Amino acid sequence: MTKKAIIIGAGPAGLTAAYELLKRTDIIPIILEKSGDIGGISKTINYKGNRMDMGPHRFFSKSDRVMKWWLNIMPLEETKGHNQTISYQNKSREISQPSENTRESTTMKDGSGKRMLLIQRLTRIYFLRKFFAYPIQLSLDTLKTLGFLRTVKIILSFLWIRLFPRKPEKSLEDFIINKFGRELYLLFFKDYTEKVWGVPCQEISAEWGAQRIKGVSLSKSIAQAVKAL
Fold first, then answer.
1. How far apart are the C-alpha atoms of 207 and 198, rounded to whole Å?
2. In a 3-state reduction of DSSP, which class is residue 100?
3. φ/ψ bin of 147: left (φ > 0), alpha (ψ from -120 to 50), beta (otherwise)
4. Parallel, antiparallel, or unpaired: how do β-strands 28-32 and 4-8 relate?
5. What is the pLDDT along the chain (229 residues), one digit of tens a residue?
């Protein structure tokens, strides 16, 4: 009997799984995708002639194997003969220019090539009719934008949860409140998360938050803001 694998979603992970199954096994992958597009939340859509990303999502990983896999599929866009350095999650790596063989393997019949673009970006959230740096940073600029009263509420809420944390920590709501306080959770995280993922924060596991929210500490941010005063 022919072996088949059902893959839910045609995002980068689902497409990668299907590709590896076809390349390395005799299993036939079947991808189920609810929408009519592939790429998941990393896709680019064409709206009235304008190409737009669904969000500022990037292809990067702490795994060298994963990075090499993607750069083999889509080599980095060529520059003037120089290697390029990319930085992410407190890590940096130098990417060499694609070889002639790689250029040929990624060139389509129409002459176009599939390339990974390296773009300098500045991400902002438009909130309270003002722009905030993202990921959220408790800098002097952020404090000025939030206003004195709201900033005091955030700090008091954070101190309160340090003294009386939520236990057991079952949901994403518990995780974020324990990490940032209820005031900041309601202000920045709750509506944004539920709008993006379509699921209440109470129904998302705390492990999911621990995996996605890394290296962000409100206590460190407060200490840095105090030093800057």
1. 18
2. helix
3. left
4. parallel
5. 789 999 999 988 899 999 999 999 999 999 999 988 888 877 877 888 887 777 656 666 777 788 788 888 877 776 665 677 776 666 677 776 655 554 444 444 444 556 777 777 777 778 778 887 766 666 677 777 888 888 889 889 989 999 999 999 999 999 999 988 999 899 888 988 888 888 999 999 988 877 776 655 556 656 655 555 5
Q: How far is CA 82 from CA 65, 77, 173, in A?
A: 23, 11, 46
For CA atoms 88, 89, 94, 97, give the dihedral sign: negative
Question: At CA 93, angle to CA 91 and CA 98, rounded to 5?
Answer: 155
The length of the chain is: 229
Sign of CA dihedral 28, 34, 36, 37: negative
Cα separation, 173 vs 183, in Å, equals: 12
CA distance 200 to 194: 6
Pairwise CA distance, residues 139 & 19, whole Å = 44
CB contact at 8 A, 124 and 133: yes
Report how far apart, in Å, the C-alpha atoms of 204 and of each of 87, 193, 198 are.
29, 10, 10
Q: Cα–Cα distances in Å, from 49 out to 36, 41, 44, 85, 152?
A: 18, 20, 12, 32, 46
Amino acid identity, position 172: L
